[in-house]
């Protein structure tokens, strides 16, 4: 493991590029599956109108682990991710079937009686394109806390803590009132991560978080994800197989709405059990 | 057989001709407005002085002023803005952020577009029947204000919807993903970010309402009036009163119309001066709208 992964606040402005870095996380630690399950997907089907986009997905995501979802465009990986915080509810004509049990309390996220607002309060999300609000840096992080009734000096402290956890404090400590748009793309994405972290979610969903960023900014985000998994369960959709290999403990390979294979990342990339997975990771299609 | 250069020369000629037509077409509107301004200024500028703004209309053209007219316009605009803005913005938000697409909302949408094209005198007729005879609101400031409010409601609804539509979907998703409800998303994000567009629409709508004459004549606005509505504030308890709402009134364009229809030349000068005041007010409203739009656009880039 790269040594600077353990020092999130000591990021030098220009980090040495070490791409591609192959993760050795799995072998270095105890078997990742030793952690209790955080979310269990059971017989999940999802429909955009008449079109079935997810087909009978069954998978378990473990607590404080990074799970990557890979697969070619249109395979349903983002759709699966967005089931976890019920983002599909925002648009008409979408339908879920099956269960996504969120532990420890075992609530079914996609049950019609489950409040999507509560699920979104427990599960944060970082989007493909940095999408800060056109407000100050401080207000961007403070919004989620305000929604939960945090006020005054506690608000100040938690905004700072979130920015520290997102490795953005050193760059923004003296410009809290500046517009978020004044930050660079990579900083904006870290601001979005701080925004998601501020409210101490149990899980964070990353939807191709680095696809709009340059390699240096990407490396910072990846280091951040590796650091964050000690406090939060992470699900990341990525187009980039090297990224999945670098940051994740588990990887799921999806194709045309099916979860073709799910395994420890190292095993999936070195010794896949499915021919389709092998074809994809060796670049034969996708 | 015409040579290539002749063909090109002919095509160029047509090109040149269109430029002339285009410039003329563009200038026509500008020149008309400019001529209008100059003409009004030449006639009316001499009458524009402090006394003109602080005097009631009078039989003597040189003593007559527009005090009751501009106070009336101001009062009517206060009523119009305070009813049309909340209603129009609320309707716009509902249609854009809450209503699911259905045949019902489609019909509403088409009708809002149609409403914006209804001749204003029709609104006057409707207001006469509804506000004056049905609700007994009188030939009053409140009736006039409500009439103009309904008249400009579609403009404000459309402006609100367009301003909301300009906000990228990612911003909404960001707010919802943090656990915001619809109203929290609207209140803390969408409204603040669309404020520039909404304010611009409101100002444009008000500058249209300020010049409306026909519907107000229809509901029975006075043309000659030598008193002001009762003051909204009083030195003794109760310190404020809304009785001004029920007062009779006139407005600037009606005052102007009244003077134009007099035979004496001197009254025509008064009309020109009133027109000048009206024009300056509407042009400054539009200027505010432009500045607002420019400043907001510079601050928020999507």
Biggest protein-protein contact in the assembly: A-B, 26 and 22 residues
Q: Looking across the biggest beta sheet of chain A, what order are the strands in?
A: 6-7-8-3-9-10
Structural class of chain A: alpha/beta
Second-tier CATH architecture of chain A:
3-Layer(aba) Sandwich
3D structure, described in words:
Chain A has 286 residues and is an alpha/beta fold. Chain A has one domain: P-loop containing nucleotide triphosphate hydrolases (Rossmann fold), CATH 3.40.50. Helix content of chain A is 33%, strand content 23%. In chain A, strands 6-7-8-3-9-10 form a 6-stranded mixed sheet, with helices on both faces. In chain A, strands 2-1-4-5 form a 4-stranded antiparallel sheet, covered by helices on one side. In chain A, helix 4 crosses helix 5, helix 4 (137-147) packs parallel to helix 7 (185-197) and helix 5 (152-165) crosses helix 7 (185-197). Chain A is globular. The two termini of chain A are 29 Å apart. Mean pLDDT of chain A is 88; it is low at 1-30. Chain B has 302 residues and is mainly α. Chain B has a single domain (63-299), classed as MetI-like fold (Orthogonal Bundle). Chain B has helices at 4-44, 50-54, 67-98, 103-115, 120-134, 141-165, 169-177, 182-209, 214-218, 252-260, 265-299. The mean pLDDT of chain B is 89. Classes of the chains: A alpha/beta (286), B mainly alpha (302). The interface between A and B is medium-sized, with 26 and 22 residues.
